[in-house]
């Protein structure tokens, strides 16, 4: 339990490993995850280290595995993940892995290239098939003389000389002229092709402008999408046929087609040739479909076989890479046969680490055992707090503020209780707390299955990581909801109200405002057994007034106790690090300052609640109860208080004025002690050290009066100038004195958010759900169902999620600023051990982000 309240004791060790056993030993340490290695080659370039070639080989294997993974995911093939972590392979197994990955990559690339070539050929044949089908309509129209517009447009393309020379030609021919005319003098006057549908309007405009209107374009859409062989996307295309006259226009048209990436295909003029070509195209398409299916089956078989081992391969390669990367941090001895490493290890785990090193040596077959020596150092060790699945989330909240200095008090175990409790004070509602607790409990019960899913949804991962926090916040909110007697803005009358209505029915119906006095028989004289009396639910006039006073006071009470507990925590730090100066000149005046001012104010609240009651005789009735706030302000200003009413006592107890004056004077006297005490003592210690004949070497002035050389809370002062020490202490004192006032007021957020949450719940009930409850009949049932669904969505979305997040952030601020600032330095650095689990987890997360 010691490591729960403080970080683990760490030791800096030197490790000697034989070269042939180094790989196996580091592998065992990676499985253990308890050793943080230091870089003994900080000035050596990463490309000049001993094992850089092995790291490069691992990078190349990872690249091939990522390629396989991308192809497997593209085909939607599930990858087998048993959840087991195979051991790191031996160095000689790298060659087999490299050969396997090389074979798989080459085979897959060859299959992909063949498939792409086949798909490209298939696309061309498919486009040609559509061209032959669509253009057949154009030729049929020409031959049958059905389209006079086409004929007239075609005649318009023929020059006057040709028209005069061929006056006796008859109908216009789309291909060659009459057989009597030489074919070499009259080239084909049309081209056919396929173009992307979105490019067609621009293509048509460009043809018209570039050819000055001397072309005739016909186009038809291909209804079914075609697959792009390069990226596999579905694209929509259109068939076009362009009629023109002359070589110059032909060249121009082809260049425009090339610019718009249109594909041109040969299209015979003769119907018999077109039919023959179409039959040949269909035959080739059928053959290609068969070959493509066989290619895809082969590719699928290769990927399915790879998917069974891909996760294990990733783990093995990452472990090999991590081992060689760690070995690059080591130094070689003079003989080049021994590797030397320095590492931080937890003191309690040295024996476990030695056993792991022994197992690694036995695996490698080395006869020389490894040597682990503990070193003396004045460096600050890393901070290592052991956590489990329950405490991990709470520790993460603390580390987000700052990693604890080495061996200073860890706030996490106390936060396990105080965090959900302060949250519940703001979020107190039995219904809303039950929703939150059930959600957290569901995640806890299903945590194994949910953790195995490994989703990339960041919001869900945050919720799941904090499942125990959510459950505790919900459970504590249920408790405070019972205290407030509040469930969805309504009350529970479990034990029966201890207030009774003494008015008759006509009085109640004819008066908007009626008052029940606790001094009469309206009140039984004993409070409600648990929480607020449900009678306050119907007290619409002064319910908020009463709850404001109640919640405001408990907020100050909890806040002052929380801050005093934080100051007491600093006592544990000072005594552990033997920091006598901070103990005397910081802890004592800080605690006294809080006690004589703010804890005294808390005592006044309890005295007021105890001494003043409605059933007491005058002047100890509720009308003569003084205001705590006014009393505290008068006390700080040395001002004489005024009686709250006629013939009422000014003070609540005998000698109150005298004690208040003494308390304020003591608080004022604490300020110069905090401001000057520690710097003056440090200055005196330095002066005495300078007067010594034998100079003091090592250790600081704090060590002379009881400091530790590497203490997390003591700090070093012998390097600082006295002016800096005075300035630092002055800032610290001003911050504490002013912060005590502002932090106390900051805890009023407990009251403010609790009031806002209760009012929002009441508004939702009054303005939404009550509308459905007031309807009658079967229509009312339908209307209530709709209204209830709307109310439930608003309740979960606004009151549970948004209000819950707001209360969570306010609670986090109260812990980080108001509580931890009293004792927590947070100037350490986290223990980052060499662990295969964290390396593989981070590698998987990084791979998911790159996708």
Automatic annotation (TrEMBL):
**Which protein, by its recorded name, is this?**
V-type proton ATPase subunit a
Q: Which domain of life is it from?
A: Eukaryota
* Higher taxonomy: Eukaryota, Metazoa, Ecdysozoa, Arthropoda, Hexapoda
Record organism: Drosophila virilis
Q: Return one GO MF term.
A: ATPase binding
| Biological process according to GO | vacuolar acidification
Q: How does it sit in the membrane?
A: Multi-pass membrane protein
Keywords assigned: Coiled coil, Hydrogen ion transport, Ion transport, Membrane, Transmembrane, Transmembrane helix, Transport
Question: What Pfam families is this protein classified in?
Answer: V_ATPase_I
The record's function comment reads:
Essential component of the vacuolar proton pump (V-ATPase), a multimeric enzyme that catalyzes the translocation of protons across the membranes. Required for assembly and activity of the V-ATPase.
- Which residue ranges traverse the bilayer? 416-444, 464-484, 554-571, 583-606, 618-638, 658-677, 750-772, 778-802
């Amino acid at each position: 339990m010691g490591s729960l309240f403080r970080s683990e004791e760490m030791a800096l060790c030197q490790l000697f490993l034989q070269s042939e056993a180094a790989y196996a030993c580091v592998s065992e340490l990676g499985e253990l995850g308890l050793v943080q290695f230091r870089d003994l080659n900080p000035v050596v370039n990463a490309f000049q280290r001993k094992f850089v070639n092995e790291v490069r080989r691992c990078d190349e294997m990872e690249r091939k595995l990522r390629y396989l993974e991308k192809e497997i995911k593209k085909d939607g093939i599930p990858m087998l993940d048993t959840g087991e972590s195979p051991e790191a392979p031996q160095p000689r197994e790298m060659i087999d892995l490299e050969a396997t990955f090389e074979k798989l990559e080459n085979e897959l690339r060859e299959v992909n290239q063949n498939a792409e070539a086949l798909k490209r050929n298939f696309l061309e044949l498919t486009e040609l098939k559509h061209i032959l089908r669509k253009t057949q309509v154009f030729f049929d129209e020409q031959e049958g003389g059905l389209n006079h517009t086409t004929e007239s447009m075609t005649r318009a393309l023929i020059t006057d000389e040709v028209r005069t020379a061929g006056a006796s030609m008859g109908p216009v021919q789309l291909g060659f002229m009459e057989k009597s005319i030489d074919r070499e003098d009259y080239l084909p006057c049309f081209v056919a092709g396929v173009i992307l549908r979105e490019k067609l309007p621009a293509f048509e405009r460009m043809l018209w402008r570039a050819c000055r209107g001397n072309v005739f374009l016909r186009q038809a859409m291909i209804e079914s999408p075609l697959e792009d062989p390069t990226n596999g996307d579905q694209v929509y295309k259109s068939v076009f046929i362009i009629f023109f006259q002359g070589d110059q226009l032909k060249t121009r048209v082809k260049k425009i087609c090339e610019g718009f990436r249109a594909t041109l295909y040969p299209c015979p003029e003769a119907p018999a040739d077109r039919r023959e070509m179409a039959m040949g195209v269909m035959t080739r398409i059928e053959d290609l479909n068969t070959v493509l299916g066989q290619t895809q089956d082969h590719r699928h078989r290769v990927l399915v076989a790879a998917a069974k081992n891909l996760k294990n391969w990733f783990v093995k390669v990452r472990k090999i890479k991590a081992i060689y990367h760690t070995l690059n941090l080591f130094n070689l001895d003079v003989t080049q046969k021994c590797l030397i490493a320095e590492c931080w290890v937890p003191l309690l785990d040295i024996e476990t680490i030695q056993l792991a090193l022994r197992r690694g040596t036995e695996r490698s077959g080395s006869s020389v055992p490894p040597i682990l020596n503990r070193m003396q150092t004045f460096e600050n060790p890393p901070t290592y707090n052991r956590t489990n699945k329950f405490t991990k989330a709470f520790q993460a909240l603390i580390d987000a503020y700052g990693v604890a200095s080495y061996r200073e008090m860890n706030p996490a175990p106390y936060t396990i209780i105080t965090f959900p409790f302060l949250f519940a004070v703001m979020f107190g509602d039995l219904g809303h707390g039950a929703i939150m607790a059930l959600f957290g409990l569901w995640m806890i019960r299903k945590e194994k299955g949910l953790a195995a899913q490994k989703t990339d949804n960041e919001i869900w991962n945050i919720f799941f990581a904090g499942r125990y926090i959510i459950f505790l916040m919900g459970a504590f909110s249920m408790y405070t909801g019972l205290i407030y007697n509040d469930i969805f803005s309504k009350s529970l009358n479990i034990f029966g109200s201890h207030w009774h209505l003494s008015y008759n029915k006509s009085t109640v119906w004819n008066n908007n405002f009626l008052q029940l006095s606790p001094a009469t028989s309206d009140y039984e004289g004993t409070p409600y057994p648990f929480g607020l009396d449900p009678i306050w639910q119907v007290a619409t006039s002064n319910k908020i007034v009463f709850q404001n006073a109640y919640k405001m006071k408990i907020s100050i009470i909890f806040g002052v106790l929380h801050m005093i507990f934080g100051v007491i925590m600093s006592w544990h730090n000072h005594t552990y690090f033997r920091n006598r100066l901070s103990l005397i000149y910081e802890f004592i005046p800080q605690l006294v300052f809080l006690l004589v001012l703010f804890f005294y104010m808390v005592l006044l609240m309890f005295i007021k609640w105890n001494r003043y009651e409605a059933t007491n005789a005058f002047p100890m009735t509720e009308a003569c109860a003084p205001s705590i706030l006014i009393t505290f302000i008068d006390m700080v200003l040395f001002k004489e208080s005024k009686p709250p009413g006629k013939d009422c006592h000014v003070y609540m107890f005998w000698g109150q004025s005298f004690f208040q004056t003494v308390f304020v004077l003591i608080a004022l006297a604490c300020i110069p002690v905090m401001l000057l005490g520690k710097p003056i003592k440090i200055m005196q210690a330095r002066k005495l050290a300078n007067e010594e004949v034998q100079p003091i070497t090592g250790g600081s002035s704090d060590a002379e009066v009881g400091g530790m050389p590497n203490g997390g809370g003591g700090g070093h002062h012998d390097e600082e100038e006295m002016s800096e020490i005075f300035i630092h202490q002055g800032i610290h004192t001003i911050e504490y004195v002013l912060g005590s006032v502002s932090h106390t007021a900051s805890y009023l957020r407990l009251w403010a958010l609790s009031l806002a949450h209760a009012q929002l719940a009441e508004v939702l009930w009054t303005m939404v759900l009550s509308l459905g409850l007031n309807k009658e009949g079967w229509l009312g049932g339908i209307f209530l169902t709709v209204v209830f669904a709307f109310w439930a969505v608003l309740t979960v979305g606004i009151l549970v999620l948004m209000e819950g997040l707001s209360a969570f952030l306010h609670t986090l601020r109260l812990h980080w600023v108001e509580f931890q600032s009293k004792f927590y330095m947070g100037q350490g650095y986290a223990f980052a051990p060499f662990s295969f689990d964290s390396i593989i987890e981070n590698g998987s997360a990084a791979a998911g982000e790159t996708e």
